[in-house]
Each structure stands twice: as structure tokens, then as C-alpha cells.
Amino acid sequence: LAKTTQPISMDSYEGQEVNITCSHNNIATNDYITWYQQFPSQGPRFIIQGYKTKVTNEVASLFIPADRKSSTLSLPRVSLSDTAVYYCLVGGPYGNNRLAFGKGNQVVVIP
Amino acid sequence: DTGVSQDPRHKITKRGQNVTFRCDPISEHNRLYWYRQTLGQGPEFLTYFQNEAQLEKSRLLSDRFSAERPKGSFSTLEIQRTEQGDSAMYLCASSFPAGGRDTGELFFGEGSRLTVL
Q1: What are B65-74's pLDDT values in tens digits?
Q2: I need a surface site. Which of A38, A64, A75, B60 has the fewest CB within 10 A?
Q3: Which of B104, B33, B44 is nearest to A30 (CA)?
Q4: Cβ contact B102:B95 at 8 Å
């Protein structure tokens, strides 16, 4: 499984856009990039998945450069409730049954 | 359907005792996964089922751990002779609705927190 590297933590002010980066230098051709969010004492929750370029849904955008060796999760206008750990994972979308979560990125939103 | 449910949410036991956790996945999801998460770490894969078949087990799953999904619906994870190092959150997830497309999205339960004294 491709390994991912993320910053350990970051702070952001309420209302700002937050960009969380992830490095995955050894991503395989068939791998997708998936992001999860986890609040304390809860299981992770899927945010977004992409393969290349840009993907956007109602909660976030995912930017993937052409070489796919990194990706950036963008959260628009964060609120205090966006304080959570964010995990970047790479793996195949089909049978990606051994997703390796890593330590994630603790994002703290400050009033 | 209210999502993946896990029981119990919390379990405190003494070292050497056996514990069992239950997971009820989202109905009609073919795949069921068990993960373990310790404080400050991300979830670590333990095992996964496709229907009732256990298709993969992590090396983390020692012989004291056993998981079953007898009818392809709910699953149990049993830990025998618990050790203090087994203290963790045990997470269950499901995915891949029957007849649907596998998007790769895992739906997690809220976990079962185990404390071994």
C-alpha cells in the first residue's frame, strides 16, 4: 500500500479556507486518493475521493496535480465543528480493503 | 437504516478475560471490516469479510483474536486472554451494497472502546 505523509496538526480561524496537504510519492497507477474525517470517539467519515485533477462535492474540494504524488483537501469557510482529524489514504477503489490511515492531520478551528 | 452499529460501546475487563464485540453493518453491504485504533493513531486494519467469507487478516490479528460473520450479516470479534496492550477502540465498517457499485467508501460505526485493567 502506498504510504501517505501529512502534517501532524494545523490551526485555522473560523470562516477561513483550510487546505490540507498529503504526500503520496509511491502512488500506484490504479490507486485513488480518499479523505476521511474523524471526530473524537467516533468512527471516520468519508469526505471525498478522486483520481486526478479536481473533484468537488458539497463539503470539500480535492486537488490532485498531474503527477499525483500529492493531493490537497480544501475545506471552504471552516467552522468550529470542522475541528477533527483528517486522514488521507491511497488505494484502489475496488477492494480497497486494507486502507492504511496513518496518523492523520489534526485540524483545530479557532474562533 | 441507521448505519453501522457496534455493541458494546464501552467494555472494561481484567487482563486474561475474554471479550466479544458485535457489529451490525448497513444492511445489504457485502463487505465488513474490523479496525483497531489506539490513542493518537489512525485506524489499523485487522480483517475483512466479503459476505461470510473472511478474505484477509492482518498480521496484527494474533491467534487470540477471532472474527466471524456466520450469515454474512452481523459480525463478532472475540479477543481471548486479553492483555493490556489490547486496550483500544475497535471499529467496524461496511461497504459495497449488493448489486451496487463499489465506490470504495467505508461506512464506520462509532466503535467499541476496550479497556483492559
Answers
A1: 999 999 889 9
A2: B60
A3: B104
A4: yes
| Residue-wise pLDDT tens digits, B81-105 | 999 999 999 999 998 766 666 667 8
Gap between the Cα atoms of A51 and A64, Å rounded: 7
For residue A58, CA distances in Å to A23, A31, A79, A104, B21 come to 24, 23, 15, 22, 35
CB atoms within 10 A of CB A98: 17
User: Which residues lie below 8 Å from residue B2, measured CB to CB, with a gap of 6+?
Assistant: none
Using an 8 Å CB-CB cutoff, list chain A residues near B42. Answer: 85, 87, 100-104
A32 contacts in chain B (CB < 8 Å): 104
In whole numbers, what is the pLDDT of chain A averaged over residues?
89
B101 Cβ neighbours under 8 A, 6+ residues apart? none
CB-based contact A111:A60 (threshold 8 Å): no
* pLDDT > 90? residue B46: yes
Query: Residue A32 is nearest to which of B40, B89, B104, comparing CB atoms?
Result: B104
User: Which residue type sits at B29?
Assistant: H
Cα four-point dihedral sign A86, A91, A93, A98? negative
* Sheet containing A61-64, strands listed edge to edge, beginning at the edge strand earlier in sequence: A18-23, A70-75, A61-64, A53-56
Q: Could you tell me if B60 and B41 are in contact, meaning their C-beta atoms sit under 8 angstroms apart?
A: no
B99: exposed, middle or buried (C-beta count within 10 Å: 0-12, 13-18, 19+)?
Answer: exposed
> Do B56 and B39 touch, CB atoms closer than 8 A?
no
